[in-house]
Structure formats: C-alpha cells, structure tokens
User: What shape does this take?
Amino acid sequence: MIEPSDETLCAILRETRTIALVGWSPNPDRPSHEVAAFLKAKGYRVIPVNPGQAGQQALGETIAPDLAALAGEGVDMVDIFRRTDHVPAVVREALAHLPALKTIWMQLGIRHAGAADEAGAQGVAVVQDRCPAIEIPRLGL
Assistant: This one.
C-alpha cells in the first residue's frame, strides 16, 4: 500500500465530517480520549465506540457499542485505536455497516496490510501509522 501524500491527507481531513473513534477511552490521560477531544474541537463530529461504555454520553454523543450501531450516522471515517490484531475485524465491520465510509485511519503504531488491501479494494482510502491530531497541525489545517 502506498503512503498517502500530504495532498491526499489534506483532502481526507477536509472532506471528513463524522468520525467513529474505535477504542475511545473515558480516561482523559489516554491518547484516544485526547485525540477525540482534539478532533471535536476542530469541528468534526466524533462518535466514541467502546462496548464497555456503550449508552453513556461523551463528546455530545452517545457512546456506541460497535460500528454496526452507527449504520445510519453518516460515518465517513473510522479512526482505529485498537491493537493490530483487532484491525481486520474492525475494517470488515466498517465495510459491512457504514455505507458513507470514505477512510480507514489506523493510529500511530498500527498497520495491517491485509485489512488495508481489503478496504482499498472497496474504494476506501487507508491511512496507517499516523495520527490526525498530529497531521492537522502539521498540514496547517
């Protein structure tokens, strides 16, 4: 899989409106919590996904138990904060249940060639081993 150019990253981040953040943590010291808050402050709709917190409120949203619960929410990006071995299942669930999906974003340290290829074959952009909270300031967005 080819690394996305800065132009591609800019386009993804400009066009994205609703992000499902898989692996969100209620702990404010966790990176998933900090990144979600950053993205929310930048104007994105961020829907936390965490089965252990499902039904509670965070970021002005009801925490979802899984991606299937977000089928009608217009999610166009899934931001994955899960171990690499969980990525294929997350990607398959996203492809199966999110009709507006445009991007799979794997956080820092997360890469999975097979899942990336599967998403790419469905016309979904893939970003691996990057953080939007780093890329947005770096790209001046």
